[in-house]
Amino acid sequence: MDLSDRKRKILQAVIDEYIGTAEPVGSRAISKRDNLNLSSATIRNEMADLEDMGYLIQPHTSAGRIPSDEGYRFYVNSLMERYQVGMEAIIELQKAFQMRITRLDQIIKYAGSIASSLTDYATIITAPQRGESMLRKVDLVPISNEKTTVVVVTETVRSHVINMALSDDECNILATALNKYLKGLTSKDVTIDKMREVSDRIKERTKLDEEVLARVLKFVFETITDDDTEIYVSNMQSILKYPEYRDVNKAGKMFSFLENKDNLRRLIMSDNGEGIHAKIGSENEDEILKDCSLVTVDYSLGDNRGGKISVIGPKRMNYSKVFASLDTISGEIDKILRYYTNNG
Amino acid sequence: MDLSDRKRKILQAVIDEYIGTAEPVGSRAISKRDNLNLSSATIRNEMADLEDMGYLIQPHTSAGRIPSDEGYRFYVNSLMERYQVGMEAIIELQKAFQMRITRLDQIIKYAGSIASSLTDYATIITAPQRGESMLRKVDLVPISNEKTTVVVVTETVRSHVINMALSDDECNILATALNKYLKGLTSKDVTIDKMREVSDRIKERTKLDEEVLARVLKFVFETITDDDTEIYVSNMQSILKYPEYRDVNKAGKMFSFLENKDNLRRLIMSDNGEGIHAKIGSENEDEILKDCSLVTVDYSLGDNRGGKISVIGPKRMNYSKVFASLDTISGEIDKILRYYTNNG
DNA sequence: TGTTAGCACTCAACACCCTTGAGTGCTAAC
DNA sequence: GTTAGCACTCAAGGGTGTTGAGTGCTAACA
């Protein structure tokens, strides 16, 4: 369905206005804007048409009008003017990233907090997911005369403290045996049979206490197969700033939803859009999000790993600014993480 | 100042009532409770006395009375009846802990979420702080033909990916050199001179690229000296359940405060009470906490490490239940972590 | 002397009503 | 096709009166 140029302008004006005020927009408010020289009566007629077409909604007679989900969708697809993130902000961002370059998870968390401070909405961010996980090395380090740390290196590094009175030599022997049989193992290779076979071979080779060996192996196999991704939320409390969540009950439900990582994981995983994209209101599956929009972007590290950043806010969010901010941030993350994983 | 037995009972009744209802408590409500057989007029006289003594406050004439900070303090010190955590809850808790025994930080996070679900208040929890950090081992693991992971084992394990095209052999040589000069190093030993000395020695011994060596050493030294403790908050949104935070602005400020880890760290670090203890209302330094109480308990691992759990809620919190819950949880953490670090 | 009953007074909360103003739809004039 | 005018609607805001919980004080009672 095609809209006349005038209708497009009016729809855009209504949505821009509503994004700013969160109040139903009346015809007079639009006619007073300087870019359209039309009387309020004319605007009224056009707005009535837009309502018939499904782009606007009148909450009750004699109130102004607010955008429908379809209205927002049309706005995001066709009307929205691209916002430009200021150069100062970008430089600020680059500096901030560079200062935090020590730990990957910190960069990710920090990116989330930047996204939320640029947009002033809550942000959900996932740490880079591993692609296939391959075992590089197992190491055993005596910590005291009672304890030993097991270190497993795949794409990431995990460790576990167990109770064993092992000498340096014993650690070396066991580590050597473990590496001999396990190096190069991927999550696909881990089966019950494989676990039993490795266990038997090492047992006959090292003559170590059976239970200790079982515990070490359990941890190693768990580490290879486990791939839960970390997920962070920042700036949750921004929700309270928006009149949509003036009602404390509603806000509370939203908080509970966002505090539950399973919900977030499902939310972000089920997202299969590409590039920057928005899910507006009822386009979200969760009932609780029907008044919200979720704008999501992927970032990638080039090497088969990547994650997502989502900004979540009221449907009446500043899409233009959110799109621009996420675009910039994901670009900078790409840069910094490529640098980090290649030269860091 | 000594209170008559009757005054104590009345004060206790007022506070118990107020904790439940959050409404100013009138004399009639107290006289109707079955444990005291006194008319409302008598109660009125006693309550007027308690107000003169500073234990109660009347928000305005002809309203009921609410406890003052001193009233709560007296209640916590002398009146409160000890709540008993149900055996089923304890067993539930033990089971839950046992299922999560794989990772220390997960246990800690989980303990926080249990504390908040038992008490229904927000919980702040710090991961075990390290005592003195001593370097046990450094390891280098090639990840691809461009990247190598550096693994540093102290009491904990940290890793870092850097860009180096090193073979297994080269990794071994460098690792051996690093271990030779660095093993046993504690945070006290790290000085600029020491760093330079180690760097020079390894340089002449291995003839490795200077920049690469510098990067590895920087990471190793950082890991030894760095001791920022992780800190988690759970169940923040419970704040919205309490009428004290019906006002969205107030709730928003509280959220911002609790989302800032620096605030939390300062809050928990500045706490120097022993055992389970409460900071009530104005006993807290932060202005924003003057309407809150903070109940804190330490847990320890026996081996010089430990952390804290704090429950934060309205002054009108169920102190009895919070004290009992924290007591139970810290006891269970002690047990499970001792088990974990000794036998895990 | 301590306790109780009764009474007048205070004050926040609530319902109710009226007014106001923003906004609409419709119609007639331009 | 656009504008001006008019009657209508409805939410929000500002009094006003009522209600009910609670108090302090006083007098009577055990």
Notes on the protein architecture:
The structure is a homodimer of 344-residue chains. The longest helix of chain A is centred in the last third of the chain and has 25 residues, at 319-343. Chain A has helices at residues 5-21, 27-32, 40-53, 69-79, 87-99, 104-119, 168-182, 192-206, 210-225, 248-259, 261-269, 319-343; strands spanning 56-57, 66-67, 122-126, 137-142, 147-153, 157-163, 231-234, 277-280, 292-300, 306-314. In chain A, strand 5 and strand 6 form a beta hairpin. The mean pLDDT of chain A is 85. In chain A, 37% of the residues are buried. In chain A, the strands form three sheets. In chain A, strands 7-3-10-9-8 form a five-stranded antiparallel sheet, with helices on both faces. A three-stranded antiparallel sheet of chain A has the order 4-5-6, covered by helices on one side. The first copy, chain A, has a two-stranded antiparallel sheet with strand order 1-2. Chain A is built from twelve helices and ten strands. With 344 residues, chain A is of the alpha+beta class. Helix content of chain A is 49%, strand content 16%. The first copy, chain A, has three domains: 5-79, Arc Repressor Mutant, subunit A (Orthogonal Bundle), CATH 1.10.10.10; 87-130 and 230-342, Beta-Lactamase; 137-225, Enolase-like, domain 1, CATH 3.30.390. Chains A and B meet through strand 4, strand 5, strand 6, helix 10 and helix 12 of A and strand 4, strand 5, strand 6, helix 9 and helix 10 of B. The first copy, chain A, binds a DNA duplex (30 and 30 nucleotides) through helix 2 and helix 3.
